[in-house]
Amino acid sequence: MGKRLPKLPMSRFDDVVSSPTIYDVARRAGVATSTVSRAFSTPGRIGEATRARVLDAARELGYEPNPHARALTSRRTQTLAMVVSDITNPHFFELIRGAEMRAKAARYTLVLVNAEESPRIELEQVQRLSRSVDGFLLAASRQPAENLVKVAAEHPVVMVNRQVPGLASVVVEHTEGCRQMVAHLASLGHTSVVYLAGPPNSWMAASRWAAIRDAAAEYGLTAVRAGPFTPTVGHGGAAADAAIRTGATGIIAHNDLLAIGVLRRLADRSVRVPGDVSVVGFDDIFAADLCSPRLTTLGGAHANVGRAAVEILLESIGAPRDLRPVPEVALPSELVLRDSTGSPGSTPREDHS
Amino acid sequence: MGKRLPKLPMSRFDDVVSSPTIYDVARRAGVATSTVSRAFSTPGRIGEATRARVLDAARELGYEPNPHARALTSRRTQTLAMVVSDITNPHFFELIRGAEMRAKAARYTLVLVNAEESPRIELEQVQRLSRSVDGFLLAASRQPAENLVKVAAEHPVVMVNRQVPGLASVVVEHTEGCRQMVAHLASLGHTSVVYLAGPPNSWMAASRWAAIRDAAAEYGLTAVRAGPFTPTVGHGGAAADAAIRTGATGIIAHNDLLAIGVLRRLADRSVRVPGDVSVVGFDDIFAADLCSPRLTTLGGAHANVGRAAVEILLESIGAPRDLRPVPEVALPSELVLRDSTGSPGSTPREDHS
DNA sequence: CTGAAAGCGCTAACAG
DNA sequence: CTGTTAGCGCTTTCAG
């Protein structure tokens, strides 16, 4: 018992009156430290009565396990990292919200990282956090697949809104969604669509374009792609101009932000929506219902995506590496019809400015 | 050197090939472990040449300090927690974004917690994280001031968009902002305003009401308060009805979300904005520029608030407890004039439904 | 400026 | 089911 007497190295400031440890609890409860440990970490492998005694002692002392000491030996941190490609995009809001809530419910802590659209920052931060978290949620990663596979070899990872062969992922279904989108446009009488593409290294951008092209072929529309564009409102101007130039009457923007920017530019150029052209977006962000005209968009319950991703990650953490499940979940999307789509008028588009 | 031979307790799964430690680096560089430690944590107190040698060895081995081991002895975690009252509110987006970026720049990790408008969850989470983070950013805390003082006695804390005597805080200036708001309404010819209040335990709500009331007195308007309302779009309906009932022509909603909900309800009831009544909000969220009519609102650079809060927190962490600065920073707000405010028409409001 | 040594608080064999 | 014991990887006196 004299063991714990030696002078402690002081923390820099005598700020914190050092809190009770398992030793204090053990002494008070009259058990070994390992028993205290078990009472907290493996409640199954300890006698009911002993456990109660330990818990009492702990409460009386105001004992709380030290997460770092715990992590140091057990290598479990009870922390998850979510790295998003661009925190500026409201779309991620929902994702983050869902993930945070699910993590909290599981008594996990959620660390948030903004990769600022940079694959380098993304990797750097994953690297930096690799010892601090139990697993990663990689949302809309801009990383080449090979790097992701490497990361996944070292840590539990679940991809969000991106699929990589061999890795767990949660996406909102978009192949069928894009089909519906194109079908909707076709049924309105459009014969041509343009996809205003997202970032060049965006898996989603490639994936959506493929789906749109296929659907267009199926419905007998011509489809072209313009861009890539940074999917923000600000870049909607250039995107709109590019769209007009293609002569297509169906404009499919990479996301709602870009679509809203397109809408603005179109209004400035006196191109009527949906009279002259129709515009659709992706994500169904809050603002899509507020802009004018209100935006038709492919939505999906993104909070659920965040939630599901955390759930899968948690399972993955609990499982031995080789038995680790690699589910590819696709949550349903839903085409939300609003006012930015309609039949293209017979009047040719022209610039009234 | 035989020290490190004994069988290591295996991690549950032989997942991770245990990474190099200071021991490995020390051996390779031919120095003591303490020297390796110094090379990373106190670069000043070590010879230039030695340091270089250690760093080389570390690089060759791919060594990365283990944050938990570090935290265990040093009690510094390089992690900050940001707890927001309601992650659902886009307003916090900006705050979070600013905080994340500043934290990342300082090589700190940002943990995100959603208090879901519950003071209990708020406190619970602070408690839970108290050993895992170096300090707290408490955004729009719903906590009684006394509890906050207690928390701040135990950890570095900076309040965001809330002031508590004796605690560090960053807010966007609103007293003057409310004055401008009321002045704007007065100059338009309004003679009465109603404040649609936010949550009962919201400091902001109390603070804004006080400022509005004072400003109204100053400009000779009558001011009444209605509510409290949960400041979401969904609750805008009831808020609008309450506002109409007061007969005031100047409607000041607690935030943009509520204001947008009010706008909707007003449109449904065929109350013209700004013909019959004017509506103003707070925060200048993205959607405020998109709704119709576009919303006049009191904005401010919220990302800067997040950034500033992190900066202050970082300083606070570096300082001994009693010398800890307690700045109360107020960043400028800005009244953004848009289309939801105008002169009240002579036609009495009526329900055309 | 550098090395030796003693822990930080906890978990995980290993016995019993 | 419970106790003993040896570390996890790092920081920090304390000497030199």
TrEMBL record, chains A, B:
InterPro entries: HTH_LacI, LacI/GalR-like_sensor, Lambda_DNA-bd_dom_sf, Peripla_BP_I. It comes from the Bacteria. Residues 334-353 are annotated as: Disordered. The keyword DNA-binding applies. It holds the Pfam family LacI. Keywords: DNA-binding, Repressor, Transcription, Transcription regulation. CDD domains: HTH_LacI, PBP1_LacI_sugar_binding-like. PANTHER family: HTH-TYPE TRANSCRIPTIONAL REPRESSOR PURR-RELATED (PTHR30146:SF148), LACI-RELATED TRANSCRIPTIONAL REPRESSOR (PTHR30146). This is LacI family transcriptional regulator. It comes from Blastococcus colisei.
